[in-house]
Amino acid sequence: MTLFSPLAVRDVALPNRVGVSPMCMYSSTGGVAGDFHVAHLGRFALGGAGVVIAEATAVHPQGRISHFDSGLWSDEQVEGWRRVASLVSASGSVPGIQLSHAGRRGAVREPWYAGAPLVDADAAAGQAPWPLSAPSAIAAGPGHQIPAAMSIADIARSVQDWHDAAARAMAAGFRFIELHGAHGYLLHSFLSPVSNHRTDAYGGTAERRLRYPLEVIAAVRDAIGHGVPLSYRISTVDGADGGLDVDDTVQVARALAAAGVDIIDTSSGGITTDRSSDTRIRRGFAFHADFSRRIRHEVEVLTATVGFVVDPEQAAMLIERGDADLVLLGRQMLDDPNWTHHARLALGDTSHESWDVRFGSALGPRHRTLTRLQEAGETPLSRFRN
Ligand SMILES: Cc1cc2nc3c(=O)[nH]c(=O)nc-3n(C[C@H](O)[C@H](O)[C@H](O)COP(=O)(O)O)c2cc1C
């Protein structure tokens, strides 16, 4: 198995094992994906990625992180995403989207305003906070709103929201769905004992804390049909006192896979706003690969790894050594949207056949000329040296 072997999941074939990790861009008005999203996500598809997973997209307005999140809570939001999915497909990549509900971590500013919780005074700038909901009435951290504990009826309505958003994602042309079950958002907050203090059918034991995620998975599978891959991003470890660790997550992954999840996308952290969890989970190169490897070897499921994958050989080895089935890159892709093509080149495939023909037909001969000049000892600065 190599980085550039196709990956078939249900009825969908990813042309290679490089994916673009979902990244919120806080650039939507009314939850609508616009020209920015077409260009931003289209670049990665033209850049050769096997799957491009669009940012955390709210299934309900209450489940946004900020006022500028994208959404699929209404039919009016389908058309913008259709443009994105269409370009990604036409460029030979698989269009994916991450569906999300931020739960108690919602109603904050964008990261470049430090993700500060919205307060009533923000209403003057058109950014009023909105009421949050979560499994239990516990704030995500100091200064954050105390969410309302969801009633059984709220939970049932919420499951329907996921279903409807997933159906809209299908209508928009997406062929790969990821559920955001990590980073302290609603699904994760049901799973973790740190944020779920319920004593009813949705909390109290590991099995009951899993109930809401399993209901969401069933509803989403119903909406997307049998043929579409379903990925679930999980925080493999909470990195918080009393939180989930990797042994717990292996059990969870087993239940998710049995419920119809095809890929466990292994991330970590975020259950509270306490950043000390970041130091407990050391940010080294490929820092989630051990988690991915463990789940992949102990559970019958495909896994994705993410986090500081920056180098072609590193990514290739993560696949070849069996650490993951799919390697997701976030910030590296922002830095170089053509990373996948460049990785092929770095790993020895100089054919340029994977590029869109409009680019590849020009870049192939250019590469051969550059190689010839290099072999002749010429550099771009040669003419200035005499
Ligand atoms: C700008 C930005 C936005 C992000 N938004 C999301 C998101 O919408 N959903 C998610 O699961 N992770 C999100 N993440 C986390 C990334 O998907 C990824 O897991 C993380 O950046 C680590 O991978 P990297 O080192 O390749 O960037 C975001 C990260 C960045 C940098």
CATH superfamily: Aldolase class I
Supply the helix-strand structural class: alpha/beta
Order of strands, main sheet, comes to 3-4-6-9-10-11-12-13
Question: What name does CATH use for the topology?
Answer: TIM Barrel
Bound molecules: flavin mononucleotide
CATH domain class: Alpha Beta
**Molecular shape:** globular
**Helix fraction bin:** 25-40%
Low-confidence segments: none
Mean pLDDT: 97
Walkthrough of the structure:
This protein has 386 residues and is of the alpha/beta class. The chain has a single domain (7-349), classed as Aldolase class I (TIM Barrel). The protein is built from 13 helices and 13 strands. The protein has an 8-stranded parallel barrel, surrounded by 7 helices. Strands 1-2 form a two-stranded antiparallel sheet. Strand 1 (7-9) and strand 2 form a beta hairpin. It is globular and about 75 Å long. It starts with 6 loop residues before the first strand and ends in an 11-residue tail after the last helix. The model has no long low-confidence stretch (mean pLDDT 97). Flavin mononucleotide is lined by residues 21-24, 55-56, 98, 180, 182-183, 233, 267, 306-309, 329-332.
What does the secondary structure layout of this molecule look like, with pairings?
Layout: E1 7-9, E2 12-14, E3 18-20, H1 35-46, E4 51-58, E5 70-71, H2 78-90, E6 94-100, E7 133-134, E8 148-149, H3 152-172, E9 176-181, H4 186-191, H5 206-209, H6 211-224, E10 230-235, H7 246-258, E11 263-267, H8 276-280, H9 289-298, E12 302-306, H10 312-320, E13 326-329, H11 331-335, H12 339-346, H13 357-375
Helix pairs in contact: 1-2, 2-3, 3-6, 7-9
Bound molecules: flavin mononucleotide.
